[in-house]
Amino acid sequence: MTKTIHARPYDFPFDPAHTAVVMIDMQRDFLEAGGFGAMLGNDVSRLSPIVPACARLLALARRHGMTVIHTQEAHDPQLADCPPSKKARGGLACGIGDPGPLGRVLVAGEPGAGFVPDLLPQPGDLVLRKPGKGAFYATSLDAILHAQGITHLLIGGVTTEVCVQTTMREANDRGYECLLVTDCAASYFPEFHAAVVEMVVAQGGIVGWAAPLAEVERALS
Ligand code: C5J
Asked: pTM for the complete prediction?
């Protein structure tokens, strides 16, 4: 049954049966001290304020029978799926694959690659590991969405201007109708978050729609 989210730049109609919530990279490596985000010099405390809203969005999606997908930026232990350029970027003393306070940085199976405790995947959720910033690059996400009959995406996670925006643009180019849940996404740079919201909705929604969680909740109430 079609629901409508009051969004920018205009209303976003969607059918929960054909909609997925895609929660991007809510991992300890990006949100906690000692992880990849901190090693890049970021103030990681800027991301955790969205965790309660993300938990509400996930719970809402599960209650309404929506597909829930958690993405995870992580590499295999041999770093076979990590381009040398990505490993070298930033010239970090402790970078991707190196042992750090949260285990090997950005490596699958290590503590840092895991999800923050309040957003652990629940039975029925899908977890998608990805080697890049966009969730469609070198993954089976498009095939999964097609198989599930998904046409609409509600997107949250971190960071807004890197993995969230990249994924939203990839999805938009593939024909998915995408809405960024604005208070379920965050950046180490609040001005970048704000700019992405504007970029998404500009030009008649050239990348998609944006709305706060309260509007998603209202649409489903
Ligand atoms: C970054 C991400 N920022 N999940 N990854 O490197 O946005």
From this structure: 0.98
